[in-house]
From TrEMBL, chain A:
Region (Disordered): 570-590
Origin superkingdom: Eukaryota
Residue spans crossing the bilayer: none
Broad class of the protein's primary localization: membrane
Name by which UniProt lists this protein: Beta-adaptin appendage C-terminal subdomain domain-containing protein
Keywords: Membrane, Protein transport, Transport
Subcellular location: Endomembrane system
InterPro entries in alphabetical order: AP_beta, ARM-like, ARM-type_fold, B-adaptin_app_sub_C, Clathrin/coatomer_adapt-like_N, TBP_dom_sf
Highest classification ranks of the organism: Eukaryota, Metazoa, Chordata, Craniata, Vertebrata
Gene: AP4B1
From TrEMBL, chain B:
Gene designation: AP4M1
UniProt name for this protein: AP-4 complex subunit mu-1
Entry similarity comment: Belongs to the adaptor complexes medium subunit family.
Main location: other
Annotated membrane topology: Peripheral membrane protein
Length: 825, 441
């Protein structure tokens, strides 16, 4: 900031400093110097006073000395010659009997940052390393690092490095930590200090003496260490266990980083550590400092990538306080979306609904898009809220709602009816570009169901000359083209006008090229155009995969406890993940429609890939099916869409309960419930489960994310009895796999009292055993680890009834689940 | 590793600038301030970057406390450091404000010099620092307006002789030594409530975060024993006695606290160092032992003339002898509300319409327990529709409850040993703040 009258002030100060009367009065002298520093920190250039200040340095008054040093260190680089004058005073101070004066002189000598002074500094620094007072040694150790950075290329004195290594055994913990820091800097080119076993164990043993800053520094450096044996690894882990639940977030985070890096090839341990650290992280989320809260919430987002169900029971901790800043609210909403399950969805939606009318538009829009994301799994409730919000007729809310609806129908096409009804009249409220673009897209795709669509477009086409936004023009072109295909009579004229304008008058190349493209496309005939513009976008049966698959810890472990999760970029990456089903899913069963509807070359590749994959899966199906039960074969056609499935399922469930009550036997429908014990399936990723099921021609429709409770999978298949030659004896089986375990709540004193520590060690031991044990025992041990009985309930529903087929199907299903369980690990 | 630390006033004035590593451009502070002010609203994100330089900042006392660092640094460490720095400045200067920082800049430079060397945090313990810090704090004149801003913790209670004046704890820790000031110790039990009440009046969520803070102005104090309620219990399973137990879910202690008498007698033993420290932190979720302090009964309707009528009845359910102070209800109202006319049930309340935050702010300076206040707000909203009713609410309530803890935690006794030679005073204070008290309509 420019400071007016700077020169005048400097002149005045110089006059005062060189005034002998002032110099003889210690108090006045000190006050004048104070004034200089004050002016300096206000941003005025007072470097002209350097020589006067050098004189002021020679004093017995420690406060004055400190003040002068603040000045000298700031301006020394501008006046290297004059700085030589200070060195004498400083070197004299290094001999002072008072250790405080010695450390002060040594620190400032190294802070001058003048390469020319190095030769004068080395001797006092060497002496400083052997000083009696710890505070001098602290300064001297770091002094070497400063010196080295002045001449980064120069040769390092091996004697100094050795002395620094030996000072790691200094009785003062700060000296020890400073040695670590200095060696890290001096040996940067060799990859930092050599972390070997004796040094590691020495540092770990002295960890308790350090304060939290020292602890986090040591833990950070130790991340490079790789234990030589598993025994050593587990010794280290149990030693560090109490630090993992430290009430100080820096220590807790540094410990977790260390855990993740040294146990990077033991995922079980990493997951156990994440669970253990969730308590302290939650506490940090409620910290009094909102910046600390923010850091904690951002890191919880990282944890949730790997363990989606981790904080499910604590979802209320992520409700926003009304006075919290927008950046925390936004992150908390992102967490809430991740934590949604059947039990809490009503509460979370109710809470999010309250934020939609927030006075801060960013918060309001974030809340609306959060509701949209939940809408992928709970579309009815969410659409009801979104539709209600349109009634407010406020531009920022309407814009966010329309955009959210567009994203939602892309993933859940079954919502389109509700969306079409809601859109009526939105165009009057919409102001911003993104909102209008979303509306245009919806009008184009669902134009035949929105009666006013052509009129809305016509208004925009009439105004296209004054339209500034490129995006709107492009979207308008596409929407009009799509609408023309389903409502040609009403749209033909306006499409002609629009194409004419865009080709003849529009100056922007992109718009012109696109208009030309459409124009030529129309020449190819209406059928071709329809194929290109209205082709099926995706396989609807894959649109309902709920939740993202859990990612391995290693994917984010590197950026844990760095600034990366807090930076804005992370938010954008997060919201980018809203993809169409095409991006979310992988190759699947061949779909006859795909090949003739999609003409894009990229997708053709995908398709051919899936075709070949299918051929081999076909053969394996035959093998598997024949080995298990010869007469039964499973098939996926005709496909059951998610909507149909939901409809049938609910219908039959109702039927079943009714029947159960009245004991009436129905002929053509069977309903059985079985319990299967294969807990490891819970930890399978949805992808592998779906792939395994498809090998035997069972289609999975929807999943809860792994490790979330209650855990559910919905699936269906058609059975065919091949031995009955006469009639095609096919049945449709719908199924649900359900696991309702109780998450064990943790509570109690956090500070390591004796018994809790013992418990933790016990748990650790258990983990050790788990790793060591032979595969045969895996199942039992992992159950112990879970500390609960886990059985998966299989509910099957068959129509028409065919007991044998159902039994055989169940055998296949159980075989698949058991295979998965044993493969997992 | 911290490259620079600087403190800016909210208007962007440079108060303190310290460069630990060198090599930063002179304009680094201005770059930060430009970035902060370029963002909409008053709420910039905690971390911002300019090329390779990362700015981490916190806001305390209306000031920006900024550290620059590299991308690989721990956000927890830097944030905690800045918080600790602000706390130390508060300890040494008495209070945190632009003025106190400006007056004590020499002291703060001295502090920074001792706390951080070459970008590495050396120590933040006030016990260690007191040996190094030579500069004396400059405090502002006793009866300046600036002091009035600190009234609040016990603002309503200062007349009574048994209560310490609210400014007693806002003085520099070192002045006690030189001025022969009173040797005092303050033990504060501070709780923050987070409550959400549903539109049907049911409690949706209630969290309490509490801490015991000790602020020590004694030059020498070897040991202090703090006795908590005997029936204090931690966790759900562990219940003691039959009476109304004081329970918390989780609890953690300062490293220096010795817990050998905690299990049997609920006594914390520690040697307090000078300045402020948090001795114990605890949390309680969803299961408050006492009734909620406030209930709201709203009636909202539209009248024929297109006006919005809000009839608010607010009941304070505290025990009759206690009272809440600085109660402030923020009621969001529809966009485009033009004017407000009000009928308040007593003269010590006030209400106004804040168009930019789109809310009616209803303030009650003192609200006695067991009483009820009501207010009728008539809002002129030109474009009132039935959907606008959605925009009313949720009501946010902020308040302070002096002498009350939501968990019921009490301090039975406070003993110092050995007995202090001179006259010493021990103060125990309780206060509950609202962190976020939301009532849906």
């Amino acid at each position: 900031m420019p400071y007016l009258g700077g020169e005048e002030t400097v002149r005045e100060l110089r006059r005062a400093l060189s005034n002998p009367n002032v110099q003889s009065d210690p108090l006045r002298y000190r006050n004048t110097i104070l004034k200089v520093i004050r002016t300096m920190s206000q941003g005025v250039d007072v470097s002209g006073l350097f020589s006067e200040m050098v004189k002021a340095c020679a004093t017995v008054d420690v406060v004055q000395k400190k003040l002068v040093y603040v000045f000298l260190c700031s301006y020394a680089t501008l006046n290297p010659e004059l700085s030589l004058l200070v060195i004498n005073t400083l070197r004299k101070d290094c001999q002072d009997p008072n250790p405080m004066v010695r450390s002060l002189a040594l620190r400032n000598m190294t802070n001058l940052r003048l390469p020319s002074l190095v030769e004068y500094v080395e001797q006092p620094l060497t002496a400083g390393l052997r000083d009696r007072a710890a505070c001098v040694r602290r300064v001297a150790v770091l002094g070497w690092a400063k010196l080295h950075n002045l001449h980064p290329s120069s040769e390092i004195d091996a004697a100094v490095v050795n002395e620094l290594y030996s000072l790691l055994r200094d009785p003062d913990p700060v000296v020890m930590v400073n040695c670590l820091r200095a060696l890290e800097e001096i040996l940067k080119e060799e990859g930092g200090i050599a972390i070997n076993k004796p040094i590691t164990h020495h540092l770990l043993n002295r960890l308790k003496e350090c304060d939290i800053w020292g602890q986090s520094e040591v833990l950070r450096v130790l991340q490079r260490y790789r234990p030589q044996s598993e025994d050593e690894l587990f010794d280290i882990l149990s030693l560090l266990d109490s630090f993992l639940v430290s009430p100080h977030p820096p220590v807790m985070a540094a410990t977790l980083s260390l855990f993740l890096s040294i146990s990077s090839n033991l995922p079980v341990i990493s997951l156990a550590a994440l669970e253990r650290v969730s308590g302290p992280l939650l506490a940090a989320c409620g910290s009094g400092s909102r910046e600390m809260r923010f850091a904690a919430v951002c890191h919880i987002q990282l944890l949730l990538r790997s363990v989606p169900g981790l904080l499910g029971p604590h979802y209320k901790r992520f409700f926003c306080g009304y006075a919290e800043p927008a950046y925390i609210k936004e992150r908390k909403m992102q967490v809430l979306v991740e934590l949604v399950n059947d039990e809490n969805v009503a509460m979370i939606l109710d809470e999010l609904k309250g934020y939609c009318t927030d006075v801060n538009t960013d918060t309001a829009q974030a809340a609306i898009s959060a509701i949209g994301r939940i809408g992928r799994s709970y579309s009815d409730r969410c659409l009801q809220i979104l539709t209600g919000l349109l009634g407010l007729k406020q531009d920022h809310i309407t814009s966010a709602v329309v955009q959210t609806m567009r994203d939602l129908v892309w993933v859940c096409p079954q919502c389109s009816d509700t969306v079409c009804l809601a859109l009526d009249g939105c165009e009057e409220t919409l102001q911003d570009i993104q909102g209008r673009q979303a509306l245009l897209w919806l009008l184009g795709v669902y134009g035949e169901r929105i009666s006013t669509a052509p009129y809305t477009l016509e208004v925009l086409i009439d105004r296209v000359r004054s339209e500034a936004s490129l995006g709107i023009k492009m979207e308008l072109l596409t929407a009009t083209m799509r609408l023309f295909l389903c409502r040609p009579a009403e749209t033909q004229d306006m499409l002609g006008r629009l194409l004419h304008y865009c080709i003849e008058e529009e100056t922007d190349m992109c718009v012109r090229d696109q208009a030309l493209l459409y124009y030529r496309l129309l020449h190819c005939g209406i059928e071709k155009t329809r194929e290109v513009l209205q082709g099926r976008r995706s396989d609807p049966s894959l649109g309902v995969l709920i939740g993202r698959p859990a990612k391995p810890v290693s994917q984010w472990a590197r950026c844990f406890n760095t600034l990366e999760p807090l930076s804005q970029g992370a938010v954008e990456a997060e919201s980018d993940s809203r993809g169409s089903p095409e991006h979310v899913t992988y190759n699947s069963k061949p779909n006859a429609d795909l090949s003739d509807t999609l003409s894009c070359s990229h997708i053709e590749e995908v398709h051919s890939g899936s075709d070949s994959a299918m051929r081999c899966s076909d053969s394996s199906t035959n093998v598997l099916a024949s080995s298990i039960a010869a007469p039964l074969s499973l098939s996926l056609s005709p496909a059951v869409s998610p909507e149909d499935f939901e409809h049938l399922w609910l219908q039959r469930q109702a039927l079943h309960t009714e029947r159960g009550a009245e004991k009436i036997e129905e002929v053509d429908c069977a309903w059985i419930e079985e319990c299967v014990r294969c807990p490891a399936v819970l930890h399978c990723s949805p992808q592998s489960l779906q792939a395994a099921m498809q090998l035997v021609n069972i289609q999975t429709l929807a999943f809860t994310p792994q490790q979330m409770l209650p855990w559910r999978v919905y699936l269906y298949t058609h059975t065919q009895r091949s031995h009955s030659m006469d009639a095609p004896n096919t049945t449709l089986i719908l199924g649900e796999l359900l696991c309702t375990g109780e998450a064990n709540q943790k509570s109690g004193v956090k500070k390591g009292t004796a018994d809790s520590e013992a418990g933790a060690e016990g748990k650790e031991d258990q983990l050790v055993r788990k790793e060591m044990d032979a595969t045969a025992d895996r199942l039992r041990v992992s159950e112990d680890g879970q500390e609960e009985e886990e059985g998966i309930k299989v509910i099957l529903n068959q129509q028409p009834k065919d007991d044998d087929a159902l039994r055989q199907f169940l055998t296949i299903l159980i075989t698949v689940l058991n295979t998965l369980s044993s493969e997992k690990d | 590793m911290i490259s620079q630390v600087f403190i800016l006033s909210s208007k962007g004035d440079h108060l303190i600038y310290k460069d630990f590593r060198g090599g930063a451009g002179n304009d680094i502070v201005s770059i930060f301030y430009e970035k902060v002010t370029a963002l909409t609203g008053d709420q910039p994100p905690v971390v911002m970057n300019h090329k390779d330089i990362y700015f981490v900042h916190i806001r305390q006392g209306g000031l920006y406390w900024v550290a620059t660092t590299t991308a690989g640094s721990s956000p927890f460490t830097i944030t905690e450091f800045l918080n600790r720095l602000a706390a130390l400045v508060k300890d040494y200067c008495g209070s945190l404000s632009e003025k106190s920082v400006q007056m004590n800049f020499a002291l703060i430079y001295e502090l920074l010099d001792e706390i951080v060397d070459y970008g590495y945090i050396q120590t933040t313990s006030s016990d260690v620092l007191k040996n190094f810090i030579q500069t004396e704090a400059v405090t502002s004149r006793p009866f300046s307006l600036f002091d009035l801003s600190n009234v609040g913790l016990f603002g309503a209670e200062t007349q009574q002789s048994k209560v310490a004046p609210s400014s007693a704890a806002t003085r520099p820790i070192q002045s006690s030594r030189e001025q022969g000031g009173k040797s005092e110790i303050f033990v504060d039990v501070i709780e923050r409530m987070t409550v959400v009440i549903g539109s049907n009046g049911l409690l949706m969520k209630a969290d309490v975060e509490g801490e015991i803070r000790v602020k020590c102005y004694m030059p020498s104090c070897s040991e202090m024993r703090i006795g908590l309620n005997e029936e204090f219990s931690i966790g759900k399973s562990q219940l003691r006695g039959y009476g109304a137990a004081v329970r918390v879910d989780e609890c953690s202690f300062h490293q220096a606290v010795r817990l050998d008498e905690f299990d049997s007698h609920r006594i914390l033993r520690l040697c307090p160092s000078q300045g402020e420290q948090t001795v114990m932190q605890y949390q309680l979720s969803d299961d408050l032992p006492s009734a909620l302090p406030f209930r709201l009964f709203p009636t909202i309707e539209r009248d024929n003339g297109g006006r919005l009528l809000m009839y608010m009845k607010l009941r304070c359910d505290l025990p009759p002898k206690s009272a809440a102070i600085n109660v402030c209800a923020t009621i969001p109202v529809p966009k485009g509300s033009v004017s407000l006319s009000q009928e308040l049930s007593s003269p010590d309340q006030s209400a106004e319409l804040k168009p930019q935050s789109r809310a009616v702010v209803w303030k009650i300076a003192r609200f006695a327990g067991g009483t009820q206040l009501s207010a009728l707000f008539k809002l002129e909203v030109p474009s009132l529709s039935s959907a606008s009713m959605l925009e009313v609410g949720p009501v946010g309530l902020s308040f302070e409850l002096p002498k009350i803890t939501a968990t019921g935690l009490q301090i039975r006794f406070l003993r110092l040993s050995p007995i202090q030679p001179g006259p010493s005073q021990r103060w125990v204070r309780y206060v509950t703040h609202s962190d976020s008290y939301t009532i849906r309509i």
